[in-house]
Amino acid sequence: MRGKIYLLRHGQFYWQTNKNRDLNSSLTNMGELQAKYLSVHLFKLLKGHSVQVSSSNLIRALQTRDHFVQLHDYVDSVTEMPFLQEASFHIGSHDGTNGSKPTGMYQSFYSRVINGFYDLLSSGEDTTKLCFTHNGVIKCILRELLKDDKLDIKVRNASITVIEVGSKIISIKAIDHIYNLPNDLVTK
User: Fold this and answer.
1) Which of 113, 112, 92, 114 is nearest to 103 (CA)?
2) Among 19, 36, 136, 170, which lies 20 to 30 A Cα-Cα from 187?
3) DSSP 8-state code for residue 153
């Protein structure tokens, strides 16, 4: 594959606000607004370009994705990809960034994400891919590409991480980019 991969984190969801204990909860009102701003920004950025859209199957990622799909006229395909799904545990407690050794749960999650990411890269198509996903997934991909297992970067809600794939090189063009999201909508 040659082209760009946009890793897009979903908007704020109820579990983050401690108003719901379900990790698969829906977007909050703020999350809905974040998803709309993200979608409008992507629409303007990619207007006239054909894109492939994929997402996690968790509600918050699907809701964020659907805001974009409803706006954009040039969506080639919309799929759900298991590697884009978030871990079922708190990443920071298991990934070793707190000085401990990464747990088996984290290592299994990391392997799933990275294997799926390399499968995506080997698709052979020259295209723009939008992946609506989660904090932990984006961190794993960045750790792999930057060869830094301890990388602990903040990936905020409705942020954009851009990876450019060339014939022989993969480069990171943006990490946790918030574009023109109003300050009152910026969350962790």
Assistant:
1) 92
2) 170
3) -
Helix (H) / strand (E) element for 60: namely helix 59-71
- Reduced DSSP (H G I as helix, E B as strand, rest coil) percent helix, strand, coil of the chain, to 5: 40, 25, 40
Joined tokens for residue 86: 């978030």
Q: Up-side HSE of residue 173: CA atoms within 13 Å toward CB?
A: 13
| pTM over the 0.90 mark | yes
CA 184, CA 177: separation in Å to the nearest integer? 16
In this model, does residue 20 exceed pLDDT 80?
A: no
Query: Please, are residues 47 and 22 in contact by the beta-carbon 8 Å criterion?
Result: no
Q: Which pLDDT score is estimated for 137?
A: 98
Whole-angstrom distance, CA of residue 31 vs CA of residue 37: 10
Dig out the tokens for 76 from the structure.
């080639």
- Identify the pLDDT of residue 19: 77
List, for residues 38-66, the tens digit of each pLDDT value.
999 999 999 888 999 999 999 999 999 99
- Among residues 139, 161, 160, the alpha carbon closest in space to that of 150 is found at 139
